[in-house]
Amino acid sequence: MTERKPANVSFESWVETQIQKAQDRGQFDNLPGAGKPIPPDSPLDGEHWWVRKKMENEGLHYPNLADDLRKRIKEAQNEACAAPTDSAARAIVDRMNSEIHTYRISPPPGPPQILPLIDINQVLAARADGKSHTE
């Protein structure tokens, strides 16, 4: 589309004309994925799909911050259960709950993720029983 739109032609009809000319020249023939549905859970789904696609093509990882935070929450719970004192366990839980709170007030783009705060009473009860939080 290097030619300019004439002043007396509507934008829509000019674009349609350009598309029709390209089809006549065969420029839309044999495109990858032509006639195939987009697979579910495609990288093209969701907001910023083009960023994920570009990162995938470049061999980069698109971070899932909620999953990373969930993993760190479990690790913090287990670390707090194994802490030598109740005050050390409370400090670990307080630090992690602060991160969860920060995540809640400024979440990353995408669907909302609900991450509950760590219940210090459950952690302390598990510590008293001598169990890890995941048991």
Q: Explain this structure to me?
A:
The chain has 135 residues and is mostly helical. It has a domain at 65-129. Helix content is 53%, strand content 0%. It contains five helices and no strands. It has helices spanning 11-25, 49-57, 65-81, 86-105, 120-129. The longest helix is centred in the last third of the chain and has 20 residues, at 86-105. The radius of gyration is 27 Å and the shape is elongated.
List the secondary-structure elements in sequence, H or E. Answer: HHHHH
Number of strands: 0
Low-confidence stretches: none
Q: How many H/I helical runs? A: 5
Q: Structural class of the secondary elements?
A: mainly alpha
State the end-to-end distance: 63 Å
Strand content: under 5%
Helical proportion, percent range? 40-55%
Mean pLDDT over the residues: 82
Rg, rounded, reads 27 Å
Tell the overall outline: elongated
Question: Main beta sheet: strand number and arrangement?
Answer: none
Give me a quick take on this structure:
It contains 5 helices and no strands. With 135 residues, the chain is an all-alpha fold.
Notable characteristics:
mainly alpha, 135 residues
Topology, pairings included?
Elements: H1 11-25, H2 49-57, H3 65-81, H4 86-105, H5 120-129
Helix pairs in contact: 3-4, 3-5, 4-5
